[in-house]
Amino acid sequence: MTHPLLSLSGVRVVFGEFTAIDGIDLTVDEGELRFLIGPNGAGKTTLVDVVTGRTRPTSGTVTFAGQPIHGRGEHRIVRAGIGRTFQTSVVFEELTVLENIDLAAHFRLGPLALLRRRRGVTPTVGGVLERTGLAPLAGAPAGTLSHGQRQWLEIAMLLAQGPRLLLLDEPVAGMSHTERERTGELLTEIAADHTVVVIEHDMEFLRRYARDVTVLHEGRVLTEGTVSQVQADPRVQEVYLGRSQRTATVGDERDTLVPAANNEEG
Ligand SMILES: Nc1ncnc2c1ncn2[C@@H]1O[C@H](COP(=O)(O)OP(=O)(O)OP(=O)(O)O)[C@@H](O)[C@H]1O
């Protein structure tokens, strides 16, 4: 039986005169790999900001593992077991891969744990290095990593904090084909023992690795379902294709959904 790990109920976020999130109800069950999609400005990042305590909801509730967490600060939410990556990198470039992961592992435990930090590779850090394929690069300064390796380092830093829920913001943006494949495999593997929510624009990646998808539009949940179901939904096509007809420029394929007829799985 599945249990909701994360529940949002009636969440609204208003910035001045602008309503970025307009009454969202959303449930993510323990063990899910959920993709969150939607055109630019749909409210995806704001939603993640609300869950992670970066933005306080104007109204509504957020419950994690049965506890209300809306209104808690970011550090407390990390300690409760929610971790996120950002669109922009947060690694310390001059520190090695190992040092970055080690710092992240101690961050959740608080300032005293950081001060008492021992030299060497703890079992947690060693396990994360192996899992993310970064073990051979443990001694390399983070500043020397490729774009893909840096993204894996950020995922490794999250894993080192031992979260139950990971929120990943566009993990394959800017990656090569090979790096995307490796990231897809890594996400699938991480989802075997974590709950994972991924914001992603890359539709090829979505078709390949997504199970359940929630589509946001103008601060609301437009629809939810499997990749095939949401691709076949005329409202989803309208939102994406309507938008791309109005604003897309040549080469801007980020938000283009392939129509259902082209969906091999459908
Ligand atoms: N601090 C803020 N103040 C005012 N408006 C904001 C603020 N943060 C976000 N917004 C607005 O809220 C809307 C939703 O933004 P959000 O970044 O959540 O969308 P998104 O779906 O993540 O888009 P993208 O795919 O472009 O990242 C946008 O119109 C954005 O301009």
TrEMBL record:
One Gene Ontology cellular component: plasma membrane
Top-level division of the source organism's lineage: Bacteria
Record key words, sorted: ATP-binding, Nucleotide-binding, Transport
UniProt cross-references to InterPro entries, sorted A to Z: AAA+_ATPase, ABC_AA/LPS_Transport, ABC_transporter-like_ATP-bd, ABC_transptr_urea_ATP-bd_UrtD, BCA_ABC_TP_C, P-loop_NTPase
UniProt KW rRNA-binding keyword: no
One MF term in the entry's GO annotations: ATP hydrolysis activity
Domain named ABC transporter: residues: 6-243
NCBIfam families xrefs: urea_trans_UrtD
Protein name: Urea ABC transporter ATP-binding protein UrtD
UniProt organism field: Halostreptopolyspora alba
Gene behind the chain: urtD
